[in-house]
Amino acid sequence: MFSAIFKVCKFAKVCFVGIGKPKRRRRKMLRYYKLFDVLNRRDMKRTDLKAVITAPTITSLGKGNPVSTETINKICEFLDVQPGDIMEYIPDNKAGIK
Fold first, then answer.
1. Exposure of 19 by Cβ count < 10 A (0-12 exposed, 13-18 middle, 19+ buried)?
2. At 30, which helix (H) or strand (E)?
3. CB atoms < 10 A from the CB of 90, how many?
4. Is the pTM of this model over 0.70?
5. By CB neighbour count within 10 A (0-12 exposed, 13-18 middle, 19+ buried), where does 61 fall?
6. Has residue 3 got a pLDDT over 70?
7. Comparing C-alpha atoms, which of 17, 30, 25 is closest to residue 65?
8. Residue 43 has what DSSP assignment?
9. pLDDT digit string (tens) for 60-87?
10. Is-contact 57 67, C-beta < 8 A?
11. What is the helix (H) or strand (E) element at residue 78, kind and residue range?
């Protein structure tokens, strides 16, 4: 479904900008707070993960953004844990997304 995009121009006039798809809100169903709990219990910092993943990926984890299964695999090997030890699945209705 497409929608018209408008913006307010000078002198409170509304100008037509174009037609585009409405932006979808990203659903963050996987939470990585368990990863940071594991690091904390081992007296490690987020920056210690730089040995296996990049800084932008660490930032993505902190924001709850999706990461690849390869990244999860590298973290699990580095920390010697299972995926369930570093992340949790939260369904849409419990994540507060309607």
1. exposed
2. strand 30-31
3. 16
4. no
5. buried
6. no
7. 30
8. T
9. 999 889 899 999 999 999 999 999 999 9
10. yes
11. helix 69-79
- CA 70 vs. chain centroid, Å, equals 15
Share above pLDDT 90 across residues of the chain, in percent, rounded to a whole number: 55
Question: Helix, strand or coil for residue 18?
Answer: strand
Q: Which two tokens stand for residue 85?
A: 């030890």
Within 8 A by CB and 6+ apart from 38, the residues are 79, 81, 85, 86
Q: Are 58 and 49 spatial neighbours (Cβ–Cβ below 8 Å)?
A: yes
**Residue 92: predicted pLDDT:** 72
Asked whether 18 and 5 are in contact (CB, 8 A), the reply is: yes
Dig out the tokens for 38 from the structure. 């594991």
Residue 50: closest CA among 83, 70, 74: 74
